[in-house]
Amino acid sequence: MIDFKTILAPDRGQPARALHLVDAAGHDDWLRQQPPRHRAALIAQRFKPTPGAFAILPGDAAEAWSAVLGVKDAGVLTPWCLARAAEMLPEGSYRLDGREPAEAMLGWALAHYRFDRYRKEEASGVRTLLTGEPQRIEPVLREALATMRVRDLVNTGAGDLGPAELEAEVVDVGAAHGARLTVTKGVDLERGYPMIHTVGAAATAQRAPRLIELDWGRDDDPRVAIIGKGVCFDTGGLDLKPSAAMRLMKKDMGGAAHALALAELVMAARLPVRLHLLIPAVENAVSGAAFRPGDVLRTRKGLTVENTNTDAEGRLILCDALTRAVEGKPGMILDYATLTGAARVALGPDLPPLFANDEALAADLLAAGERVEDALWRMPLWDGYDEMLKSDVADMVNAAEGAFAGAITAALFLRRFVPADVPWAHLDVFAWRPATRPGRPKGGDAVGLRAAWAMLKSRYGE
C-alpha cells in the first residue's frame, strides 16, 4: 500500500533528480545547449518532444541521471503534463528544473493510483515530487484522494457494493468529520420517500433501498445540498437491459461516489457552509416486487408519475431526494447522476453536460471547470421539450417517447422538483474512462468533481 502523503514533499534542498520540460517549439534550441553525451542519449532513445515522451539523461555518476519530458507547452503546466513521467520513472525524489510544479502535482499524485481490491500488483514504489510551496501539498492531496475515492467506489463490483455498503462508506466519511447521519429505510422510506422505496423494492432484504443523509456545518452558514444517484446496480428492471448494456452497471452509483467525494472535500477543508448530503441508494432489480411499466407512482412532492420505462429509474429516486433537499431551504443544490446514455451520445465520456436553472451558478461552474481543466459543457433546459413529459393519466411520465433529447428531458423531469428561486445544477456524468490516459487509467473516474469544488471554494472561501 502506497503512503500517498509521501508522493509530494517540501523541497528543502535534499538530493533529487531533475526533470526538464521541452516542447516542440523550443526543442532545437534546448538540444543545442546540451552536452554531447545528452545528445547521444536522446538519439539512442529516439526521443521526440511530444506530450508524454521522456528520456533519461546521463550524469557524472551512475546515479546522477536526470530526465527530459516532452510537453505540449513548456511554458504552461497542466494537471496532467507530468503524469506519464510519474507512471514510468523509477522510485525516488524528483525536482522540476527551474520552476514550481504546483499546477502539475495533481496528475503526479493520481499517476500512483492502482485499483488492487481483486488483483494484487507488484508495488512500483513512490516517486516523490518536491515543491517549494509546501502549503499547496495538502489541498492537492485532498483532491487526489477524493478522485481516488470515486475511482475505488465505481470500480468495485456490485456484489461487494450494494446500498448497505454504500451507506457504510458514507458513515466512515461522516464520522471522520463529525457529521450527523440519518438513514431512512423500511416502512419510513415507503411512507416518506415512495419513489426510492418503489425503485428498490425488487431487491433482496440485504440490499434494501435507503436514503442516506449527512448534515455538517454551522446553522448560520450558507446551506448547500449535494445529491448523488446511488443505483448500486441497474438491471433496467422489467424493461431489462441487454447484457452488453448491463456490463458496466456497477458504475450506476457513480453520481453518489461524486457527491460523497465532493462532500468530503467540503468537510476536510472546513468550508464555511452548512452541508446537506443526500444519497438515495437502491438496486434496480427484477423480482415479483418490481415496479411495472404503466404503474402510476406518487412522489414525495405529491406529483404523480406514469412509469413508461423502468430503466429510467435514476430520475425517480433523485426526485424524492431533491424534494427533501428543498425542504431544508438550501441556497444551492448540486446533483450528480449517471443519468442518460443520451448525454454520452451528445458529448462523449469525458465532457459532462451541465444543466442549471441559474445563470450565475452555471457561469461559475463553467469558469471553474476551465480554470482547473475539468471541463463541463452547458446544455439547455429547453422549455419547448417540457411537453414531451406529458401523460394522459398522471402529472407526467418519467421517460419521453422516442430517442430525441433524452438528456434534456431527463433534466426537465428533475427541474419539476426544484423551485425556480433555488439555484440548482445537474451534472449527467459518465463516471467511467473507456481508455487509459496518463494519470487516468481505464475504469471508474471523477469528472466534474474538481470543477464543482473549485466553484465552491471561489464562492465560499476555504
TrEMBL record:
BP GO terms, sorted: proteolysis
Transferase in keyword set: no
Domain of life of the native organism: Bacteria
Matching Gene3D superfamilies: Leucine Aminopeptidase, subunit E, domain 1, Zn peptidases
UniProt keywords, alphabetically: Aminopeptidase, Hydrolase, Manganese, Protease
Span of domain Cytosol aminopeptidase: 309-316
Manganese as UniProt keyword: yes
GO annotation, cellular component aspect: cytoplasm
Alphabetized InterPro entries for the sequence: Leucine_aapep/pepB, Macro_dom-like, Peptidase_M17_C, Peptidase_M17_N_1
MF GO annotations: manganese ion binding; metalloaminopeptidase activity
UniProt similarity note: Belongs to the peptidase M17 family.
Protein name: Aminopeptidase
